[in-house]
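Internal tracking record. Fields below are filled automatically when a chain is submitted to the structure queue. Please do not edit lines marked as system-generated. If the sequence contains nonstandard residues, flag them in the REMARKS field before resubmitting.
Queue: standard
Priority: normal
Entity type: single polypeptide chain
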Amino acid sequence: MDSKSTLKSFPKNFWTVIFMEFLERGSYYGVMSVLSVFLILSAGEGGLDFSKEQAGAILGTIPPLLYFLPIIAGAIADRYGYRKVLFFAFTCMILGYGFTGLSNSYFFVFISLMLMALGAGFFKPVISGTIARSTNENNSGLGFGIYYWSINLGAFLFPLILVPILKAQSYSYIFYMAAILASILFVINLFLYKEPEGKRSNKSLSLVFREMFMVLKDWRFILMIFLYSGFWILYFQMFGTVLWYVRDYVDMTPLNSAVNSFLGLFMENPSWKFDVEHVTVINAGVIILLQLVVSNIVKRMPALPTMITGIGFGTLGMLILSISASPWIFILGIMTFTLGEMTTHPKFISYIGLIAPADKKALYLGYSFLYGVIGSSIGGFLGARLYVKYVDNLHQPATLWLILSCIGLFSMVSLIIYNRFVAIKKNA
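SYSTEM-GENERATED OUTPUT FOLLOWS
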């Protein structure tokens, strides 16, 4: 089947949710690309003047909710209907983003962002579930590929184009933008989104929690998730310590000059400037360009060793940041880390599918997202504390990245040991 006919095989509802995913992820990553900096900037600079520890508490609480809630939200959506859950999700997003833009007290910002996370956490399983129900054995691979592409396209375009324009007026405008996009999503759900075909589940929340305890008793699975989470402690620095570091320590003048010299070929007096939101742009852009290439290279390689190799690249990326006063070295570090992300995570998903009991694969894949709960919660709190101690107080930024590199090294070594002595050997 050629690509054109394959694309035509997707129903209208598939393309509706792809567009919804693009808008939702664009707004989310647009906010996350600057959130940690917005929280700590002084009022005169347009920020909220919170401490880094306070910002770390937010970063260590909000993302874990996003990774944990889909476990519950998926069961609720299957039982009560996708459209109803989406109406709830978008209402929470509208209020959460909107109130964050209006608030300046720590308590109300925290609560508003938790409301946003509640909405985003309920949104995620409905969209992936709709795609699963809108595809078949022949086109599901392409369908989910388009889905992941839309995520990274949103994460690339919104911080690149909209965020710099909006924050030049006020950081609050970024949150208002996200609230407006959530309102558009609400309207799309009202008029365009259709409840996907499929039998409603009778699964109760009590059964969901019983299944949770059953999975948690699988010590090999939980141990692997915990060890793998070391990589994600590093990943979530991209939304915290990395942004503070590039703002405080990296002189981007050579990069700005090079980019403006290039832009000068097409316009007069360009004034492009690298800022913190472009870290997300680099990460998403590299994934858009190289994910298919990387996936093709590693597709026949064993899953767990490939995961370990990817963590090695991520660790190397953190290590490069320890010598990244130069903008070129800094970008190299971010790109190297992203290469690790592209190598590691797809193989992690396939590994979970391989080791899960045959009749519980979907259940195990649902709980595999616990890596995000652990990684983001530890990463948020720990990253902020380390930054304050080693960067703000001791003025030793290299020490911060060396410590984080050690966490990545621990994750690598421990998974090597796990693979040698603990893992159940299958054709992985």
